[in-house]
Amino acid sequence: MRDQLDGRAVDPRLLDGLRFESANGRVTVTIKSGLRVFGGYGRDRNNHDEAASNRYAYGVFASNVLATGLDLTASDSRMERPGGNSYNSWYVSLGRSFTRRIYLSGDYGSSLSVVRFVTASVCVIETRPHTRRLAVSTLLNMNGGASVLASVERLTDGASTQTRLMSGLNYRF
């Protein structure tokens, strides 16, 4: 660490765990006001000892669906890993503003993999039985540029179940 702070060259052997690669592109098209679709492609090398994987993604965002005030987001991401091993990840979110200050949303995500950390700097993507995530979030905009986000989510994957409560405070200067 001292070498980096002092501006000295870093021994390349020390950077071996950081040699993961990612190149991605995405195109978003606005069909009409409040309706956007997107598609993307990427190549990622997620695990230290594996070749690069192909990643495909597509989705849609629609605001004020059928004049109900509901906002809908849906997407699919598919990663084709070396050796024919692949996974698919779906995401759907439905949200609505209830006043100028309150936005409430519900999210559902489903995938066939999870990220597992082997060490603090090395992670592995594992294919698992179906993983599901269900969440409810609210965003409260306060006076003076502050906002509070609160979220409750439940994650299940056949082997375990997790319930998480998260919150955060954002202040814009």
Task: Describe this entry's structure for a reader.
The structure is a single chain. By secondary structure, the protein is mainly beta. It has one domain: Porin. The chain contains one helix and nine strands. It has one helix at about 1-5, and strands at about 20-30, 35-45, 55-60, 70-80, 85-95, 100-115, 125-140, 145-155, 160-170. The chain has a nine-stranded antiparallel sheet with strand order 1-2-3-4-5-6-7-8-9, with no helix packed on it. Strand 5 and strand 6 (about 100-115) form a beta hairpin. The longest helix has 4 residues, at about 1-5.
What structural keywords apply?
1 helix, 173 residues
Q: In percent, how helical is the residue content? A: under 10%
Number of helical elements: 1
Helix-strand pattern, N to C?
Answer: HEEEEEEEEE
The figure for the number of domains is: 1
Sheet-strand content, in percent, reads over 45%
Radius of gyration equals 20 Å
The name of the CATH architecture is Beta Barrel
Query: What profile does the largest beta sheet have?
Result: 9 strands, antiparallel
